[in-house]
Amino acid sequence: MKVAIIEDFYQKESPVPATANCVDCWKGSEKVAGLTTSVPTIGTLALAQYINNPTRGHAMECYELLGGGQMRTVEGNTSANDMTNGNNSGFNVRNQKLNNRDTLRTLGFVYVYPNNQVPT
User: Fold this and answer.
1) Contact 94, 34 (CB under 8 A)
2) Is the pLDDT confidence value at 4 over 70?
């Protein structure tokens, strides 16, 4: 959904494949070749896997690096108080640990556009 919103805003198609399951997207790394990084960068989509259910994943946009191993994210379909509750709608701003080992394991980051730049 985040990729679609960004594509619509810039009126430019992203090479990131449309998928409802971000873990499957990450596992299909050939689909996102050249678009992935292990380093958080503003504007990338952080992909994470649930510790208690590795078949499920979560995606969030990194929009600020806070230091101390944390980033501020924009996330959809989560409540402000419970990151595992997918029954709420809208976007929420959250502070996330880059290495959250309690509920999420960060798999890496995906650029919406190559080199994190919107094509002209």
Assistant:
1) no
2) yes
d(CA 110, CA 90): 22
Residue 118 is encoded by which pair of tokens? 């919107």
Residues paired with 95 in a beta bridge: 72
Q: Give long-range contacts, CB 8 A cutoff, 24+ apart: 33-36.
A: 34/114, 35/110, 35/111, 35/114, 36/108, 36/109, 36/110, 36/111
Least confident interval from 15-19, 24-28, 64-68, 78-82? 78-82
- Per the structure block, which two tokens stand in for 29? 């790394």
Is this prediction's pTM over 0.85? no
